[in-house]
Every structure is written in C-alpha cells, then in structure tokens.
Design a protein that fits this description.
By secondary structure, the protein is of the alpha/beta class. It is built from 28 helices and 32 strands.
Length: 927
C-alpha cells in the first residue's frame, strides 16, 4: 500500500477497546445489575447449580423488625453473603433463608406510643394486631435495604417469628422441654425492668456505668448467745450497700464462716466487722480513734441477732460463702426478695421472701412508711433520711460503678423475687452436655469459644416468662379447682394445632374449653374449669428455636453448618440456640460459629445520633455504591471492633477504583481475543507471561485459603496487592508495548493476551463473592463462552500446569535488578540527564554470575526495564552491580516511541523501527 509511511500511525496501534465504563457510577449502575439478577432469578439459579460437595447451610440470625438497618446490620449480612456466594461457587448447595425477630417489647412500646398519640385504648387483641402490622411494615423496609447491599437469599419467602407455623413450633418446642422436665414454675429473684414492667433474662442485661448512693448502716445487737460482745451496751454490726431502697426488705446480715471478724470500739460503741476491712471502714465512717478489742472466726458468730435499723423486727446473722473482702465491711446486708444469693441464703435459713416493691418500681404497703414512693426517684433518699433520723446512718456518699441495665430501654434494672416460668439449665446434665457439645464446634475467631463456655458455666436458670402483650403465650393451663398447672402432650398438641391454623392470637382470644375441648379434665383432681397463663415467652426463646422452626422444618435437615452474628450473641442467640438445640436434639445447632465485633466511628466511639457520628449504610450506598461498602467490610478484621469514617471510606474507594481500572485494562486488551482460537499453550508463552500465570496461582491459593478460613481482610489485601503491585505496577506496565505495538496476531501479543485472559477469568470469579455487582458487570464483557452470571460460575482452582517455581525464582532476580535500574533512572530524571524514562539508555554492569544469568534475557531487558535500550556488560572484578543512565542513540519511532537505531531501516516506513515497520506491513497485507 504505497504511501503508508505518511499515514497516521497511531491508528495502527492496538489500543485498548472496551465498553466497560471507566467511571463506576455504582449508585446508578448497581440497581440495573440487581434488575438483571431478578430477571434470571439468581437465587433460584444458584440453588439449581450442580452441587457436588453437598449442602452448606448458614442459618441467618433474625434482626429485630423495628427500624432502618444500621451499619452493624450491613456488616453482618455482608459477611454472610461473602460466605454463601463463595460456597455456592465452590460447588455447595447453599440455601439462605433470611429471618426477622418480630415479637417483643420495643415493638409493643412503639405501638403503645402511637396509640396514646391517637388517644386510643386498644384491647389486647387490637394491640397485638397493631404490633403485627407494625413489624410487617419494617420487614418490608429492611428487606429492601438488605437486598440493596447485594445480599442474596430467599428474600420473598423469609422466616418471621410471627408466622403461624413458626409460632406453632415455639409451642411444640416448649412442650418438648416441659415434658422432659426442663420447665418449672417457681419463686425466684430475677432481673426486672421497672420501666418496661417485665422480667428479664441474663441475655437481656447490659452493664453500664451508673452513679449510686453509697451508705454505711449500723444494726443494733439484739441477741449474742455466746457473749462475744462481752455484754457491751451499745453493740452493732455495720453493713455497706449501694442500694438503700433494698433496706426495707432486709431480713439478715451475712458473714463468711472462714473470715476473721473484729470487735472494734469507737467511743462508747462497739462494732462487728471483718478484721481485714477495719481500717477502710473506720476511714469511711470518719472514726479517727478506734481500738480492736479481739477477733474471732465468722463461724463463731452463729446465733447472733440484730435489729433492723428502721423497723421493729429482727435481722438474723447468717453464713454465706459469697461474702468477700473486696468492698464494704465484710458483713453483707441480705434481702431475700431482692438478690439471687440473698434469696438462696434465705431459703437455706427459712427466711420470708419479702418483696415490698411492685412491678412499676414503687414501694408497696409492705414497705410501711415508704409505701407509694418510687424506689429510685424518691425511695433511695427517703430511706437514707429515715436511717439518719434514727441514728443508724454512719456515712453517705455517691459512687460510680458498673450496674446492670435493660438492653431495650437502657435504664437500671432491679432484682425482684416473683413467680415466673423457668428452664432448668442443670436438669438432665444439660449444662455439662452443652459444654461437651462445643468440643465439636469450630469457632471463628478461636478465642470466642472461651467466652461462650464462660457464659454457659455461669448461666442461671433461664427465666422464660414476660409480662407483655406482644408475644407467644406460654401454653400452660391452670385448674380452677386445685390450682394445678397443666402441661401434657394432649394440651400441647391442642395448642400447637390451633396455633398452626390461627396463630398465637388465638391463645388470647379463645377460652380454655375452645382450645382443649369440652371433655378435658384436670389430670390431678378431675376438674373441668380452667384458666390460661397470661405471660408470654421470652423473645430469646423465639429466636433460640429458629434452627428447629427453619432449618429442621423448612430445609428438612439438622443441624445447620454455621451461625454468624455479633459477639454480643454469646449471651444471646448463640447461647439460647445452644440451650434449646442440646436439650431437644442432643447436639449443638451449629458446627461452625462465627462472631464479629461492632462498628465504631473513626475515633473508636460507638455511633449515636446525639454524637452526630452515625454512618448509615443507605447513605454510603447513595454516595459511593454498595460494592464500596462490601469492599470496606472485606477489608476489616471483623474478629474485633472495626472503625468506619469518611477518610476510611475514601481509602477503600481508591482501592475499589484501582481494582476496577485493572479489570478495565484487562478487558480493553482482550477486545480481539478468542479464548478458543487465539490461546497460546503455556510452554509456548513468553517467560514473563508464564511468570505472571505462576504468580496468579500463588494469589489464588492465598485467596482460597483466606475464604476457607473466613479471613476476608486477607482476600481484600491479597487481591488488591496483586492488582496494584504485581499487575499495574509491574507486569501490565511491562507488556503494554508488546500489546500495543505488535501486529494483532503476533505470537508474542497472543501470549500476553492468553495471560490476561487467565488473570481476568480467575480474578473476576475470585473476587465475585465480595464485589458482587462489579464482578457481574465485568463478567458481561469477558470473552468466550461462560455462565449467565459470574455467581453461577465455578470458583477458580489452581492449575498445576502454570506452577513453575524455578522460573519464578529467575524472574525474581530480574525484578530485583529492575528495582536498581529504576532508582538510577529516577535519579537521572531528577538531575535532567533524561526526560521520560522510556527515552533512555541503561548500561548495566553486573558481576558474575549475575552477568551470565542476565545474558540469557538480554533481548527482553529493554521491555522489562521499560526503556529504549539496555547495554549489558560485565562489571570490573570485585565490583557490585551498577547502573548508568544516558540518552539513547538513534531515532524515535513514531509508532512505539522507542528510540532505536533501527528506525529508518525500512524504506517503506522510514519513521518506524524494524518491529513497527513489520507490524504495519502485516496490516498492509490485510488491507
């Protein structure tokens, strides 16, 4: 083609071509990808995919349906989604049924508040109907928000704890436990929220700092059977407490039988306190002059009786092993109606269970002069004033300490002894069986096992009853004739069948006769009149039964493979699921237990509206897209609390951009590559192309190992490093000239394209579980035959034919030389010796045997160093490697821009180097 030398040579270069956009625009593009997933029904297709490895079931812990999802929800659902997508691509069938927790106090409170605003007084059933509608509304909103994260699952057929079938399962599970002897009704001290007016389980308690009154109170001696006070007229013992409101319930003072106790004279008064705490106590009550008369063992104080400091009744001395010498006086104020240990001691000594506080936290008539006062608002001060008036208050102060609070309303809780329904943790050796069951569980992180074991070892019996409207009624009947509580297989079956058909509302709507039938008789006395329990089940019983209601009932298997929730669930969902699982099925409900930390702001503070530091996932998605949020989650070590902030998100966005640009480069240089006809066999590829495929296998091994160990931060760092360093900063930079300037079908260009295709095919699949949207977008442009969705493709596996460690070691030596060359080039550029690195000549003086090694690669060194010319010489004997940089000799090729002495050698194309002239001549032949 005459005159081709005057053509625009830039048009003959194989520049990248792709419709894959450089700008991500994720907030607008991701919904389009989601629409594609909906059209092909991606979840159903994932389940239909061949599953040679069998099933893997990650059971979803149910979030509460009462508000927009927060960043902690996003962390949790995305971790689960990484696992589900990875396992599917690995060849597992991974049904994922999302769920929601619908019953409970927060929803009831919100609905009650709305009713009050409308000046409505609903019936019980009207309240429950409104709660159900409220919960359903938030399920719809949260579902949409979770789906926008890219989380895959059976979103339109989730499990809800308020579904009839689920509620019926709760009745069934309760019945199984009751018939096996785990359930009992008893009088016990329990945590009680006086603001929500309900009992609380251990899982519903959180500890926070609280300022309490701190008082030292003296109790006058009444009886001293062994004469240890020596007949001293003014004799007392001293107690210390941070709950003055419990003094009206005092019935005893406790000492440790093994501790030493001292009789201390302060003026005319003689006091009995722990010998080790004399100094601290005297300082606290302001006694500067005192004298220790004698000391005795606590066991010798048996039979002493003191007088209550306010009322005209006795307070007996008792022995208790829980008395410590850490705080107070070593003599413990004991109120069996208000403390677990106090209660147990009282039972041992036959003391009355005095509880003068009602469910609202108000003193009852049993508190005498304090009746009608709220224990925290007025009661504490009123008791202190009464003690002071009677001369029994020795000291009063305020102290800040860790105190139990309600996890829902975050107010301080109290201990009240009431009649409740409990599940025994020690019946049938359940506690030991639970601990044994954990031996076969794999924990992530491993340290989490200790936390769950400690929770089980120290767990009291589970208080199951709640005094609320919105929940599943405890299926117990009471005989009106003999008062017997009735739980039989017949009664459970009747309530179960009714719940299955009519839901839990039916329990509150129907009479006992309608539920049991007219012929049912009391098993104890034959009576025919009954009442029903009005309390509802603890919501932890709801969620704790989910593996039975969902995995067993819907997926027809048990147990599931994995639970994954926040670390707080060691005392919540993990704990209660284990209790129910081991008690009813004999095994742990999880084989793998994954726990993650909380999401904090960039300064490590908990997020709150008052601090103005809340980062909502919805806003992150709106600003930068769900895939950036997914990448952020993958970048964190979730085993600890993680931090998020705008600067952190900016860094992740930059990392996302580098990954996207890498994918775009790969796609752009494969526009004319057919994987079937253009692929080059590995043994025929250039060595550096073979090297990158070897490196790809190393990366894939690391990525697979990271996924398998659920260390997603390693997935992020391995993938990002490979893209940013191995590829963008090294390999891709080196092969650009070959890709762009070679003839389209040149064997060396096809060699590079073969490597690029392998990298693209491998990395888009390997990162798909994390970058769900972007991987799908990239997959659309990957050449060759492929699955309809990247999420229906198989996870890549290491190809042994690409592993070549000897070759990798050789190229590592070359890259080390390259680093030295680059240092010299940069120095030459800064001093003005050269302009652009490409327009330079490098003289490498290498000692033996490096010189001999590099001679084998002499022809490739210019492209590896990305310079025009490389002169390789042997360095003088004894001298190390050195590099000299200068301007090259020759002319600049108008096509590849290298300065070479072959430019002009071709008469047809005098402005081109020999290689470019040949490439253009091939184009000329095609034309």
């Amino acid at each position: 083609m005459a005159g081709l030398e005057f053509m625009d040579y830039s048009k003959t270069v194989n520049l990248p071509k792709t419709d894959f956009p450089m700008k991500a625009d994720l907030p607008h593009r991701e919904p389009e990808i989601h629409k594609f997933w909906d059209e092909i029904d991606i979840y159903a297709r994932m389940l239909e995919k061949p599953a040679p490895r069998g099933e893997f079931i990650l059971h979803d812990g149910p979030p509460y349906s009462n508000g927009d999802i927060h960043i902690g929800h996003a962390l949790n659902k995305l971790l689960k989604d990484f696992i589900v997508r990875y396992k599917t691509m690995q060849g597992y069938k991974t049904p994922f049924i999302p769920g929601w927790d619908n019953h409970g106090l927060p929803i009831e409170q919100k609905v009650s508040e709305n009713m009050r605003k409308k000046q409505l007084t609903p019936t019980l059933l009207e309240m429950r109907k409104a709660c159900r509608e409220y919960a359903a509304g938030w399920v719809d909103k949260q579902r949409e928000q979770f789906m926008r994260l890219g989380a895959v699952g059976d979103w339109f057929n989730p499990y809800l704890t308020m579904n009839y079938s689920y509620e019926a399962t709760l009745v069934k599970v309760f019945g199984e436990l009751a018939l096996q002897g785990y359930i009992y009704r008893g009088l016990k001290p329990i945590h009680w929220c006086i603001y929500d007016e309900t009992a609380l389980a251990e899982a519903e308690i959180e500890y926070a700092q609280h300022v309490s009154h701190s008082i030292y109170v003296r109790f006058p001696l009444v009886t001293d059977p062994n004469g240890l006070f020596d007949g001293h007229e003014k004799s007392y013992t001293i107690i210390w407490t941070t709950t003055p409101w419990t003094i009206p319930a005092n019935l005893a003072v406790a000492v440790h039988p093994e501790h030493e106790y001292a009789f201390v004279d302060v003026g005319e008064d003689r006091y009995l306190i722990a010998a080790e705490l004399v100094g601290r106590t005297m300082t606290a009550i302001g006694a500067e002059n005192y004298c220790v008369v004698k000391t005795v063992k606590g066991s010798e104080l048996e039979g002493m009786v003191f007088k209550h400091p306010i009322y005209d009744r006795n307070s007996v001395l008792v022995h208790a092993d829980y008395v410590t010498l850490e705080d107070g006086t070593g003599v413990v104020h004991t109120a069996p109606g208000h403390g677990r240990e106090d209660f147990e001691t009282g039972q041992r000594y036959g003391l009355e269970v005095l509880n003068p506080v009602n469910e609202k936290g108000v003193f009852t008539e049993k508190a005498g002069q304090f009746a009608g006062l709220h224990i925290l608002k007025q009661g504490n001060q009123a008791v202190i004033d009464a003690l002071k008036e009677r001369g029994m208050l020795l000291a009063s102060d305020k102290v800040e300490h860790s105190y139990p609070h309600c996890w829902r309303c975050h107010n301080p809780v109290v201990f009240r002894t009431t009649v409740q329904w409990f599940m025994s943790i020690d019946h049938n050796d359940l506690r030991e069986r639970m601990l044994k069951a954990l031996d076969s569980v794999e924990f992530y992180p491993k340290e989490a096992e200790n936390r769950l074991r400690a929770m089980i070892e120290n767990s009291p019996d589970w208080c199951l009853s709640r005094q609320r409207s919105w929940g599943v009624g405890i299926p117990v009947f009471y005989c009106s004739s003999c008062g017997e509580s009735i739980i039989t297989k017949e009664t459970i079956d009747a309530v179960y069948k009714d719940s299955l058909q009519n839901g839990s509302d039916s329990w509150f709507e129907k009479s006992p006769a309608e539920l049991l039938g007219p012929d049912f008789k009391c098993p104890k006395c034959g009576g025919s009149e009954f009442t029903k329990e009005t309390d509802v089940l603890d919501v932890w019983f709801d969620s704790g039964s989910s593996s039975r209601a969902v995995v067993e009932n819907r997926l027809n298997t048990y147990p599931p493979d994995m639970y994954c929730e926040g670390s707080d669930q060691h005392r919540g969902w993990f704990n209660k699921s284990l209790v129910i699982g081991v008690a009813t099925k004999g095994v742990s409900p999880f084989k793998h237990l994954v726990s993650h930390g909380f999401v904090l702001d960039a300064e490590g503070r908990a997020m709150s509206k008052s601090l103005g530091n809340v980062i909502a996932p919805q806003q992150v998605i709106k600003d930068v897209g769900a895939d950036v949020l997914r990448l952020f989650v993958s970048s964190t070590d979730y085993s600890e609390d993680i931090r998020i902030g705008q600067e952190i998100l900016k860094r992740v966005t930059d990392a996302y951009r580098r990954l996207r640009n890498t994918f775009r480069f790969l796609l752009g240089n494969l526009y004319d590559f057919d994987p079937v006809k253009d692929r080059v066999a590995v043994e025929d590829m250039l060595e550096i192309d073979q090297w990158v495929l070897h490196r790809l296998q190393e990366v894939l091994q690391d990525l697979t190992s990271a996924y398998d160990s659920l260390e997603f931060h390693k997935v992020f760092h391995t993938g990002h490093y490979f893209a940013a360093v191995d590829l963008s900063a090294l390999y891709l930079d080196i092969i650009k000239d070959r890709l762009y300037a070679s003839a389209p079908n040149d064997r060396n260009r096809r060699s590079a394209q073969t490597a690029l295709y392998e990298i693209l095919s491998t990395m888009v699949r390997a990162l798909a579980p994390v970058l769900a949207y972007t991987a799908e977008e990239v997959w659309k442009y990957v050449p060759g035959d492929k699955a309809d969705s990247v999420h229906l493709a198989d996870f890549p596996v290491v190809k042994d034919e690409y592993i070549n460690r000897d070759l990798a070691a050789k190229w590592q030596r070359i890259f080390e030389v390259r680093e030295e060359v680059y240092k010299s080039i940069e120095q030459a550029r800064q001093t003005g010796v050269i302009g652009k690195p490409l327009e330079s000549r490098v003289r490498i003086l290498a000692p033996e045997p490096l010189y001999d090694f590099l001679r084998g690669y002499e022809a490739e060194l210019p492209s590896v160093m990305i310079v025009s010319q490389v002169l390789l010489e042997k360095s003088p004997e004894g001298q190390p490697l050195s590099v000299e940089v200068s301007s090259p000799e020759g002319k600049k090729c108008q096509r590849c821009w290298l300065i070479l002495d072959t430019v002009g050698a071709d008469g047809e194309h005098p402005m081109l180097c020999a290689r470019c002239a040949e490439a253009v001549s091939q184009l000329e032949e095609i034309v």
